[in-house]
Amino acid sequence: MAALSDLMKLRPMDMEHLPDAVSETPPPRLVRDLSREDSRELLAVSWVKAQPALTAFLVASMPQFSDAEDLLQEVAAEVARRFDDYDQSRPFLPWALWVAKIKIANFYRARERSPVKFIGDSIDALAEACDRVQVTLSEEKWALENCLSGLTARSRQMLQLRYFEDLSPQEMSGKLDMTAGAIRIALLRIRSALIACVRSTLAGAPTSHG
Predict the structure, then answer these.
(1) Where are the alpha helices (DSSP H) in 83-210?
(2) Considering only CA atoms, which of 61, 135, 138 is closest in space to residue 105?
(3) Helix, strand, coil fractions of the chain, as percent rounded to 5
(4) What does pTM read for this prediction?
(5) What distance in Å separates the CA atoms of residue 198 and residue 140, rounded to the nearest whole number?
(6) How far is residue 105's CA from residue 8's CA, in Å, rounded to a whole number?
(7) 171-195, pLDDT tens digit by residue?
(8) How many angstroms separate the CA atoms of 89 and 3, rounded?
(9) Using an 8 Å Cβ cutoff, are 193 and 148 in contact?
(10) Distance between terminal CA atoms of the chain?
(11) Using N-to-C axis directions, what is the helix angle for 180-203 and 169-176, rounded to 10°?
């Protein structure tokens, strides 16, 4: 197993499959070439999408949840500081996970008496798992949005009232002119239809939708 110091030798490309030697590598599209406004917008959007996976990665790697929270803030600051050098043609999450791995290595190096829980191949495997989970969540979100767009206006209204406005079936009955029992049955049918639609959509969607 690799020593803890080996983590510092990792580069963003370690998180991705390298191209074949005969393939031509496209020139990097560095963020520094964007306008300041476009750069800030890209960072905000990329961070929001990546944060759940980064949080899970840090929570699994840290001895306490509070340590993970503190480290997440450090990762956010470091990502912002390095963002001009980010190649926007590459996926953001593996790059952000690389930054998080450096922070984790620094955390344990500063606490030499603490046991190192994840080093070498173990921390790489965990990062790759977080990356795969994030891709799956993005696919499911896209499929759900696609299926929601196919619902009737009445069905979307019911979902809005129940899950976004947090109304009970009894509270919804006055707005929809339906009994609470009928609303429960309708919501059950809508949920079942959405589950079937999402599964069918994912089965027929071989590519990612971020």
Answers:
(1) 92-109, 121-148, 153-159, 169-176, 180-203
(2) 61
(3) 70, 0, 30
(4) 0.48
(5) 7
(6) 7
(7) 999 899 999 999 999 999 998 888 8
(8) 31
(9) no
(10) 34
(11) 100
